[in-house]
Amino acid sequence: MLQNLTGWHALLILAVIVLIFGAAKLPALARSFGQSVRILKDESRAAASDTGEPETSSRADDARPLAAPSAAPAAPAAPAAAERVTS
Q1: Which of 27-31, 36-40, 74-78 has the highest mean pLDDT?
Q2: I want to staple 48 with a disulfide (CB 3.0 to 4.6 A). Which of 22, 53, 68, 74 is the partner?
């Protein structure tokens, strides 16, 4: 099923993702996904060590610390309906 996918299909899928999430949110989405994968990998290694199975990977870059979140300026929040003053 996936062998029929070409570069044009990947480009179309990428365009749909950009339209759905917006270009500004993609770096944060990718960072979040990467952290989730790293956490899953660490937890699976911990579970494997608890059961006595040998670890399969000894990559040095797996132990690197997580990057600090970027300090993006927050958008001003709209006032809540209860706080709005009507005249």
Answers
A1: 36-40
A2: 53
Amino acid at 64: R
Q: What is the 3-state secondary structure (H, E, C) of 43-61?
A: HHHHHHHHHCCCCCCCCHH
* Cα–Cα separations (whole angstroms), residue 3 to 6, 8, 9, 17: 8, 13, 11, 21
Amino acid, res. 54: P
* pTM of full prediction above 0.70: no
Residues 6+ apart with CB under 8 A from 35: 66
Nearest-angstrom CA–CA distance, 76 and 70? 18
**Where do we find the tokens 């990467």?**
34
Cα distance between residue 63 and residue 55, in whole Å: 14
